Structures are given as structure tokens and as C-alpha cells.
User: Fold these one by one.
Assistant:
Number 1:
Amino acid sequence: MRDLDQISAIIDQGWRRVWATSGYLSEREARFIMAAAALAPASGKNLEIGSFKGRSTVGIAFVTRELGLGPVVAVDPHTSPASTDPDLRRSGQTTSYDDFVTNLKSAGVFDRIEIKRAFSYDLAREWKDPIRFLWIDGDHTYEGAKADLEMFKPFLVDGAIVAMHDVLGTFEGALRVFVEEVLDCDDFGPAGFSGSIGWTQYRPRDGSRFRWRRRLLAIPSRKLIPVARRADKGLAGWNKFLYKFWRPLAPHGSVSVRRLAKLLRTVD
Ligand SMILES: C[S@@+](CC[C@H](N)C(=O)[O-])C[C@H]1O[C@@H](n2cnc3c(N)ncnc32)[C@H](O)[C@@H]1O
């Protein structure tokens, strides 16, 4: 494991590249996934489901390249097929693929990525490799997010990190999957939020040791499920009040490299 200050410096450089790439990821979230990809104490591939124009792809590819950590696979049909996807037509496009490739080249990470222009469920049919970092940012419907976790969970290596985007927000499906399939499940150990990202570490041998911490996180998150369901046309009135009440009770601030390393027990 490299020095944590060195990892922080690499993340700073990565952020400059992510910042220059269009897409859907805040600075806090981008820094979090770069830290998670850097610190996951496991060997294997880094799999991204849902790339759009490459904002998250650039961050993951940059840090894992600088640290010599496993190949990056990015799967996306680049047609925004899910009801939860960004609307491509608004920008007069039919595909995000051309912008994706241009952005990866501008960031200098194109050669680092194995691009799969496909649906995650098509890739899953041929997938055989161990996964050290799984980033789920594709179809945010309940069925889509659940399938993405279920299809690739068998390939997670002990210690791998799973991070799901748009969990702590108004996407009911992704939130419900995170609460029911991750926070309620002893296959997973430490867990938390950063921005709208829900994350956890795959710890099938001792995940039960973290059960109570996951249960505490699940209390406010579970309360947000019906709020998110009613928010499909925007947050308003009493529902907005409930959102503003429960969301802060699920801690979702920035997570420093040192803090994450401690949570993952990669440092004392
Ligand atoms: C929210 S965007 C991803 C944003 C991107 N990660 C970023 O950092 O800007 C969601 C993407 O998921 C893709 N998608 C939707 N369903 C998918 C599926 N079943 N498998 C793979 N990608 C999917 C869409 O084409 C879209 O580009």
C-alpha cells in the first residue's frame, strides 16, 4: 500500500481530470470513488456500470493506473435506455459514446479502459473475473439496480468495495436496493454514504461484526424510501420536509483518504 499522502496527491490530480469531464458526479463523490478505487484491499478488475460521458470513468481509470491497480472495464450501451438516465435528446444526441471516447482521450486514460458498449446484463453473461471495485451507476430503477448487484456480487473478492450512485437522493430503486441488499446483509462489512453514494466493503467472513453499524445507517435511509417514491415528480410540501428531516440523519459528508483507510482497516 502506498503512502496515504501520496494517494491523496494522486486523487487531487485525478480530480482535475474529472472536473474537466462532463457528467453527473459532484467533487465529493468523485473524490470518494477515487479513494475507494485506490484503497480497496483486494486484487481484481474495477468494473463501472454506467459511464455516460466518462466523468466517473476518468477518475477510476486515473487513480488505478497511477497506483497499478487492476484493469478498468466500463459497460454502457451509451443510449440512456433507462427511465432514470440523463436525457440525451435534450442535447440533440442519440448516443453518449462519441463524447465518452473524446473525454477519455482528453484525460489521457483511453488506453487504460476496456470499453463494453453493452448492457450490464449482457456483460454479466460472459463475465468470469474477480472484481475489487464495483461502481454501479447505470439503471437506477429497483429492478435494474438490484440486478446489477446480484449479477456481479458472486465475483466480488473478499475486501472489495461496492459503491452505488444516487442512493441517498430521490431515486427510490437504488436506495431500496442499498438498504435491503447491502445494509441488511451480513455479507457486507463497513458501509456509509458520501454525497448520494452508498458504499460498502464485501466481507463475507466477518460482515456480521458490522451489523449494528449498518443497522444504524439503515434507520434514516429506510425512512427515505417512501419519500423518494413520492418524489418522482419533484419534492414538495410534507414530503420535502421529511426528506430534509431524514437525509441529514444519514451521515453523507466527505470521507478523507485516511478515514476511509481506517474504516477498511488498511491502516491502524
Ligand atoms: C447517470 S448515467 C452515468 C453517469 C456517469 N457515471 C458519470 O459519472 O457521469 C447512467 C448511464 O447508465 C447507462 N445505463 C442504463 N442502463 C444500463 C445498463 N443496464 N447497463 C449499463 N449501462 C446502463 C446509460 O446509458 C447512462 O449512460
Number 2:
Amino acid sequence: MEQEIRDAEQEILKRFEADRKNYKRPNILVCGYTGNGKTSLIQTILGKELVAQDKIGAGKPVTRGFDVYENENVRIWDSRGFEMGGDESAFHDQISDFVRERQNAPDVEEHVHLVWYAISGVRVTDCDKHLISTVFDPKHLIVVLTKCDTLRPSQREAMKKEILTTGISEERILFTSDAESGSIGCKELMELSYRMIPDAYKDAFMAAQAIDMEAKIKAVQAKKGKANAAIVAAVATATGVGAVPLPLSDALLITPAQLGLIAYLASLYGLKTEAMKTAALPFLAKMAGKLTVSSLLKFIPFGSVVSSAVAGTLTAAMGWYVQGKFESMAIAKIKGEPVSEPNFDISTFMTYYNNYKDHKE
Ligand SMILES: Nc1nc2c(ncn2[C@@H]2O[C@H](COP(=O)(O)OP(=O)(O)OP(=O)(O)O)[C@@H](O)[C@H]2O)c(=O)[nH]1
Ligand SMILES: [Mg+2]
């Protein structure tokens, strides 16, 4: 039994790590002329932990180029130091060379996945227009009119009209201000970015953003659809043609389909490998150890073999039980509440199982 549990743990970890490979962090390029509020905007949306205060209003740029801010959920390239009225062709070339170099990288994880092109004040330069209309892929581009608290409504309208001449669509133009000026439009910029970022990168971006806790919680709740699909598939495997009824020996009642399901749910709800090892696996081992026929017989009258219907119901109940735990752990983490180790025990699971079974019937 000990060995079987260790094998089950290894199997879960292996599948979990394979699933985690689908969780990728996006690269966002933020560019525009110097002093127009790019770094402040990044800090407002992605938080002070990512962008230190001394990066803002840093005065004369020391080097021409890009600052990089990164953590496990996001990487930002923040251009700086391009003076308006300076050498515009150098600005243009530096940005377009950077984009070309990135998009030519063989690994898509090194590409630019989203661009926030920042403009402030009341002037759109030819260089701005040229970059907007020719250098960036339109499906990755958002034009951000920063420091909008300094603009009158008529000035905003004039700016928007001017930018529309580049051919960009209207919903890709947003007005923002930084945290100190009311964070106008920043949630909208986060939402639009989330919609535009390719699917594999969305979860990491949502985890990275620090401006909209409600949106984070909603994104966790919205995972229920994917959890449901995975549970339905595991139930189909457990009950399908060729599924062998488990004979009533003291074998583990955890099947490969169930291990795969648990690993998938852990990665879906963003458990990190460390959390998986320290919190989830010991619990799962405990559950696997207890989920033996002899322990279950006390609760569930199986007859002489575990029928396919019982195996299906057990799989579904286990899936939803684990899903519920992982979902509430993810939400507690967002709210900054203490995330306790999942407190799974066999009698709560059995109560859950029986409720689930009755409810289902
Ligand atoms: N009124 C107002 N001021 C802002 C806003 N955002 C930034 N600022 C101020 O504008 C100045 C420049 O902001 P930064 O965020 O450093 O600008 P940047 O685009 O990163 O500048 P470079 O790194 O030099 O290219 C700072 O003094 C900010 O406090 C805003 O939304 N409204
Ligand atoms: Mg800056």
C-alpha cells in the first residue's frame, strides 16, 4: 500500500508538471516618449512589488533602451528616455528593431504578446503614427492615452480622432491616469489586455494584475466550466467500455483517470509545484490510503464488485470535492486570507460523497 501511494504521488506530480507547462507568462512591451507616464501606468496596473517607486520620474535617462520588470506571472519591457523632438528616427528604429528581433525568436514565449503604446499631452507625432500603423501587429496593440486627468474632454476627443487616422480601431484606444491621479481607465486597460492576450497566457496575466481583485475572483470562479469538462471526461473513462470493475480486494480505489483529474484541477487552480508537494500531495496520499475498499465498505454498500456506476459516482464526487477545495484556496489567496492546507479527511469526503450521490439521484 505504501508503495502504491508513493507511485500515485509520483504519477500526480508528473501529470501536474505536464499540465503546468500550459501556464505561460506573457511579455508586454510598453513604449512611447519619455515622461509620458509609462512606468507609472505599469506600476498602477501591476503593482509596486513589480515596479519600485524609484523607477518613476527618474529624471534624465542614463541609457537609451528598455527596463525589464518580471516575476513568475509577467514580463514587462518598459522603454524609456526617448525625448520628443529628439532623434525620432532613432526612436522609431530602436522600437521596430526590438519588435522584429522579438517576433523572430523561434520560441513564441519570447515574443511580444501585447503592446501598450503610450501617448500623453495633446500632440501625436508622425513617428507615433508610423509606429502604430506599421510596426506593431494590430491584434497585439493598445494605444494608451496617459495622464488623461490633464486633458479637457475636447482635447481627448481631438487626440482620439487623430489616432483613428492610423487605422486602429476605436476600442483599442483607451484613456488612463496613474494611481495618484485616480487610476482612470486602468481596470479597462487590464480587461482589454486580458481579452487580447493569447489563451495560454491569460491566467498568468490575471494573477499578475494588481488593480482588480473582483476580476481575479471572477476568473477563478469561471474555471468551473473547465473543471466540469475534466470531471465529466474522467467519469466517462471510469465508467466507459473496457473499464474493469474493481474486485473487492484492498486495492487502492484511485485510478489513473482520477490521478490525472486531480493533477489537472491542481494546475487549473494555479497551485504551484511547491504547494502541490507540501500541501496537496500529503492530503491526496491520506485520501488514497483511506480510499480502500475495506474503509469504504463501512460507508457504501458495494456488493461484490465496485460497479461502473459506483466508480463513476466516486470519481465525480472526488473531482468536485477537490475542485471545491482548490477553488476556495485560490480565492483565499487573492483575498490575502490565510490559505490553510486543504483539510481533507475521509469522513468529510464520505459525507460529501453521500450528499452528492443523493443529490445526483
Ligand atoms: N498628472 C499625472 N501625472 C502623471 C501620471 N502618470 C505619471 N505622471 C507623472 O509623470 C512623470 C513621469 O512619469 P513616468 O511614469 O516616470 O514616465 P515614463 O513614461 O516612464 O518616463 P521615461 O521612463 O523617462 O520614459 C512623473 O512625475 C509622474 O508622477 C498621470 O496619470 N497623471
Ligand atoms: Mg519610465
Number 3:
Amino acid sequence: MYFLNEEERRHLLKRLLPKSRELEVAEELRGWNWHTAPLEPPYGCRLALYEVASSYCPTNRDLFLRRVARVRVKPNVAMVRGSALHAALVHVLVAAKRLIYQYGVERYTEICRELQALDPPSLSGAVRDLAPEEQADVAQKMALLTEFEKARIVARIQEVLVKHPYIGEDSLANLALPLVLEQKLDGSLLGLSQNLSADAMIAFEPMIMDLKFGEPRDFHYLTTTGYALVMEAVYEYPVNLGCLVYVEFRDRRIIVRRDLHIIGDELRQWFIETRDEKARLVEEEIDPGVAEDCHPTCPYFRVCH
Ligand code: SF4
């Protein structure tokens, strides 16, 4: 999912990277300036990154209900499915890294054999709470995703081994799987939660990757932008690139579309304004009212209607 194809790699290397390195992001919009305006959080409350970046509710009443009215609801099917598919992907990538360190380069055939035999993770409690047909659908998609990713990883391991005859296992793991998964980040400098978790970080050129299993939406860019700002605040180096990975299941096929983008001033400004607006809603306990066009799958639908 996270590995770019040849075309995307060339687009990244020849266009986006040079452009991002020339990019002049306004200094006050770099995460390391978290202590001055406009990045300095104007309110004391700490929001989860998804609370800033998710705008599925047109009026943000979901945030009011969760954080102010303290209404607890069950996640909807799409949320449960998304988190099960994320878990399946982490499972296979982490297993691959573990196998590389366990067997080393000399026994690489065993790495490939065990990886190919790997099953998807077992279903979480949230998935087991779904209706039987929905459970079966999630299980089938997890299996498809696992098979898809295993084949890609085996090919990448072999590709690296062919190119580097004297490689050791640490370098093999790093070249074949140059990703940090579920990178934990403390967002408190920017008025965000202390326990943020970015889906994936590319190790060589700082790039935030976020995996989506639904339709593309504009506000998805706020997720990569938010993590980029937090990375800059915590590590004090520039993070200029993001990639939204959209995965679609069509019958028994997987379609992947990656949206590589530069995290420039406009996105940074949008993130800060959204953060401040939502933090004000929580701090001042403002009920923004029920939206006009609520989707019935919204977890709060029965609370609002
Ligand atoms: S039901 Fe409508 S107003 Fe209520 S949280 Fe959901 S989308 Fe927002």
C-alpha cells in the first residue's frame, strides 16, 4: 500500500522533491514555531488529530457531542472496517520486518516462505460485534489485503537482495521496508493530544502517509498536514510532503490510488484555523446545531434525530 510504483517514484523524485526543497514555507507556519502566533494554541484543550482533521459532520456537532456533552456511541461499520484493515496491514509489515531479523540474509528463503504462509490477524471484538455478513465482508477484505501486501514485500526483498550481494539484515529491512508504522507523536506543543499516531512515515525523505478506505475528501489533507506540523514541532526538521493512500475493493481486486502532495502554506493555514475553530467550540461549549444533510451512517444519527 505504502510502496510507490515506478511512475509515482519518478514523479516524487523529479518533480515533487525538487519543488518541495525550493518551497518557501512561511517561517511562522513551521511546526517548530509552536510557541508563537499563529501556531501557538489559543485554548487549553487538547484535540485528537482526527478531531481536527475529520469533517464528516458538516457542523462539527459530533465533536460537541463527544467532548462537551460526553455522549458515547459505537463506531459505525466503516470505522470498524477501516481500523480492521489498518490492523491487517500493520500485521503483515511488522511480521515481515520480524522475519528478516529472525532469519537474516542467509536464510532469506525461509523469510519468504513464512511470510507467504502468514494469515491475517484475528478479528477484533468490534468486528465480531458486527452483523454476520459484515463480519464476513471485513474478513474477506483483510485476507485480500494481506495477500496483496505479502506478494509486494517478497518482491521487494528479492529486488534488494539481487542488487546488494553483501547486505546485512538491518540494511535489508531498511531498504525493503523503509517505513515506520504507527509513529507515536506528542502533539501537545500544538494543542493536540499527547498520544498521536501517524499511519506511516517514510524514513529517507520525511513524508507522512495516511491510509484511507473511503472516498477522497478535501479535508483528508488536514491529517497529513497536522502530522507534518507535529513532526516539525517535535524534531525541528522540515516535513514538506504528504501522501494519502486510497484503497478500494472492486470484487476481489484491490485498487490503490496515491495522492502525493506538498504541504505548503495554504494547507498549514487551513489546519491552524480548523484547530482553533474546533478548540473554541469545545472550550466555550458551543452546540453548533444539527446539520441539514446528515448521513444515516453517522454514529450520532440517533442522538441528533
Ligand atoms: S447526525 Fe448530523 S449533526 Fe449529528 S453528528 Fe452526525 S452529521 Fe453531525
